[in-house]
Specification:
- The complex is a heterodimer of chains A (339) and B (243).
- Chain A is globular and about 65 Å long.
- Chain A is 33% helix and 27% strand.
- With 339 residues, chain A is an alpha/beta fold.
- In chain A, strand 2 and strand 3 form a beta hairpin.
- With 243 residues, chain B is of the alpha+beta class.
- Among the domains of chain B are: 40 residues, no CATH class; 85 residues, Gyrase A, domain 2 (2-Layer Sandwich), CATH 3.30.1360.
- Chain B is built from 7 helices and 4 strands, in the order ααααββαββαα.
- In chain B, strand 1 and strand 2 form a beta hairpin.
- In chain B, helix 6 runs antiparallel to helix 7.
- The longest helix of chain B has 51 residues.
- Classes of the chains: A alpha/beta (339), B alpha+beta (243).
- The interface between A and B is large, with 49 and 27 residues.
């Protein structure tokens, strides 16, 4: 009877998120203590806040709320009204009970660019190197550059190094917003950053991978063509043009995606076979016909199935709209937690 | 390997650090490797016993705890009041928007009655019938029609009664004659042509029409500009729960 009572106490403690205390009372071997993270993602004007419970062995997508903001709050080049957007984020966090959770901000892949250089090509890994700056799709004075791996992890025997480009105005506007939110921040990353870490884990490191992140207005391709060589590309169409419950339109979308990919592979002289992985917020618009039309594409969710669960608390409309976004959030958060 | 992160060290943001995490941090690992803390049966009972002893020995601890709880409750209450005030402000804003939409609604509905009537009427005039005068207001119509025979005008009256948008119980013809002299000069509906000697003055009222009826009408009239505008307006109205 005492044992039953202690089990009950342990469950209550786990529910109220007091991990240290419930750890001490843990009489079983399995880990059921979670930390709750707030993952904020933004696609054009669509803001999604997801609550993810995580521990060393499992992640659970616990809740999700999304909101479409007008362009005078979030524009094409970043947050236009930081005070208002910060207040909205705080309200969403309060409603979802995330007021004390760490926040991770993931921005649409379409706002970033990534390419890889052979180490021999670049004389010095300096942010002002003209060869590095020349690949930026943004204006020179509005470009933020990040090396991947960063200086701390860059080994001298590596032959390839990645360079990520971002628009400084976008990053600064979100940084200012997060300052007003005043919560512990994990990072500001492009949503493909988690995929890069996932593609370099021991299971995938030897494979060539094409990852397609589908958004309503564009498709972002991240191509891994050797051990650590990544290139990002953007196709000028998204799922909104083909949004339907019809198999025929999903097939047309995938055919156009294939032909776009073929053109890029020819242009860039990528050779050999590629594993094709697809995911992204935009896929939610296709509904049930998607699963039967994918052909050679694998859903990211099916590849990381054992690493995450979706809670029953999730509202059905949020689940159907964002079910293909959650795997990307999971791999990004996982990359942060494993780093 | 670290994921790509664009937060600059000088950003001034308070950063989450893995080592401080209660689940992923170093503190947890240390606790797990500490042999004393692995005594899973002993430590909970020790803590419980210690708590009981302390609460007996130092009753003021409990008092302070109660004071802290009251202060927390007061703080939460003030937060609640602030939230309530914000909700009220948003409600007022919402009411204002509803009122704006109501005004907007007048724009669509003011032309709602005559439009379906004229649209349908132009397709319904029998071959031998001519209209001389054609007066419409927001709720009724007044027509003067000529024909070569009574049958055509009777067909026309039947068609008027069957028109969607017209209340059939209100359709009246005030005079119908083949001899111009038989109609009063005040009627103003007299045929001067020998080819169409029969004339009739017709009155009636329109049925109330909603914007949803208009939507169907614009669609069947292939007036897609108006149709799309009205469809957006109606879906907006449905979303906010009507005006």
């Amino acid at each position: 009877m005492i044992r039953q009572y202690l089990h009950k106490v342990k469950r209550r403690l786990a529910d109220v998120q007091l991990p240290q205390i419930s750890n001490r009372l843990d009489f079983s071997a399995d880990q059921k203590v979670f930390e709750v993270f707030a993952v904020l993602s933004c696609f054009d004007q669509h803001l999604v806040l997801t609550s993810i419970k995580a521990n060393e062995s499992m992640m659970i997508v616990d809740d999700c709320l999304s909101i479409d903001l007008p362009t005078h709050l979030i524009g094409d080049s970043g947050v236009e009204n930081t005070e208002e957007v910060a207040q909205i984020v705080l309200d969403l966090m309060e409603v979802m009970g995330l007021s004390s959770s760490p926040l991770l901000l993931l921005l649409s892949s379409s706002k970033f660019s990534h390419c890889s250089f052979s180490v021999d090509q670049i004389s010095s890994w300096d942010l002002n190197d003209p060869k590095v700056r020349a690949k930026s799709p943004f204006l020179a004075d509005q470009t933020l550059i990040g090396f991947y791996p960063d200086d701390e992890f860059f080994a001298q025997d590596q032959h390839i190094r990645g360079v990520g480009y971002a628009n400084s105005r976008l990053i600064h506007s979100w940084t200012n917003t997060l300052q007003l939110v005043d919560q512990p921040v994990m990072g500001i990353s492009p949503i493909y950053s988690g995929i890069m870490n996932w593609a370099q884990n021991p299971i995938n490191s030897l494979k060539n991978i094409v990852f397609c992140d589908v958004e309503p207005n564009c498709c972002n391709l991240l191509i891994k063509s050797s051990l650590s060589e990544f290139h990002s590309f953007q196709l000028p169409f998204g799922s909104s043009l083909y949004a339907s419950q019809l198999n025929r339109l999903v097939d047309q979308f995938l055919k156009r995606l294939e032909s776009g990919l073929d053109v890029i592979k020819d242009d860039q002289s990528f050779e050999g076979g590629f594993q094709r992985v697809i995911s992204g917020y935009g896929l939610g618009e296709f509904g049930s016909p998607l699963a039967s039309s994918l052909g050679s594409w694998s859903l990211l969710s099916s590849l990381i199935l054992k690493d995450f669960q979706v809670s029953n608390n999730l509202k059905p409309q949020e689940l159907s709209r964002h079910q293909y976004l959650f795997p990307q959030l999971i791999v990004c958060l996982s990359a942060y937690l494993k780093s | 390997m670290n994921p790509i992160n664009y937060i600059s060290p000088q950003s001034g943001l308070s950063l989450w650090r893995k080592q401080d995490s209660p689940v992923f941090g170093d503190a947890v690992d240390k606790a797990r490797t500490n042999p004393l803390l692995q005594q899973r049966y002993v430590i909970p009972w020790m803590i419980a016993g210690l708590t009981v002893v302390l609460s007996w020995a130092f009753p003021f601890v409990n008092n302070r705890f109660a004071i802290a709880q009251i202060s927390n409750l007061e703080f939460e209450h003030s937060q609640f009041l602030q939230l309530t005030a914000r909700i009220s402000a948003k409600e007022n804003e919402f009411d204002q928007q509803k009122s704006d939409i109501k005004n907007f609604s007048v724009l669509f509905t003011s032309a709602a009655f005559p439009y379906p009537f004229t649209f349908n009427l132009q397709r319904s005039i029998p071959a031998k019938v001519n209209l001389n005068s054609f007066v419409l207001d927001n709720s009724s119509f007044n027509l003067c029609a000529f024909s070569s025979d009574y049958e055509s005008l009777e067909d026309f009256i039947d068609l008027l009664k069957a028109l969607p948008g017209v209340d059939p119980n209100t359709v009246r013809f005030t005079s119908m004659a083949s001899d111009p002299s038989a109609m009063g000069s005040s009627s103003g509906c007299q045929s001067l042509s020998t080819l169409q000697p029969v004339s009739a003055s017709l009155r009636g009222q329109f049925l109330p029409v909603t914007t949803y009826d208009l939507e169907d009408l614009y669609s069947s009239a292939s007036d897609y500009g108006q149709y799309n505008k009205l469809r957006l307006y109606n879906s907006l109205l449905k979303k906010i729960g009507g005006v």
